[in-house]
Design a protein that fits this description.
Elements (H helix, E strand, L loop, with lengths): L1 H6 L15 H14 L2 H15 L1 H8 L3 H7 L8 H11 L10
Helix pairs in contact: 2-3, 3-6
Length: 101
């Protein structure tokens, strides 16, 4: 039994925020999340971007508390449009509409 545990692969949890280094990477990540059209995934993606940028700094720039940002920008969060607009503006990310044709 001990031998089997020794042979088990050890993994660390994946944290997307660790890989979002540039504004271009952040924008591309959010764009991919928006294409999924899953509100919870979009909120989580924004949360990952916010953590990569620095939640404390983002809280100062948006006027929202860190706790409010963590809550609304989680996989179970449901941010208001106002929160999304404040966060994307502070991140320097602009949302735009296009047709699917």
């Amino acid at each position: 039994m001990v031998e089997r545990d020794r042979n088990r692969a050890r993994t660390a949890p994946y944290d997307a925020a660790e890989y979002l280094k540039t504004p271009e990477q952040m924008a591309a990540y959010l764009e991919a999340a928006l294409e999924e059209a899953d509100p919870h995934f979009i909120a989580k993606a924004l949360g990952n971007i916010a953590r990569a940028r620095g939640m404390s700094q983002l809280a100062k720039e948006t006027g929202l508390t860190r706790e409010a940002l963590y809550t609304s920008l989680s996989e179970s969060g449901n941010p208001t449009l106002a929160t999304i607009m404040k966060v994307t503006s502070a991140l320097g990310i602009h949302l735009k509409a296009s047709t699917t044709a």
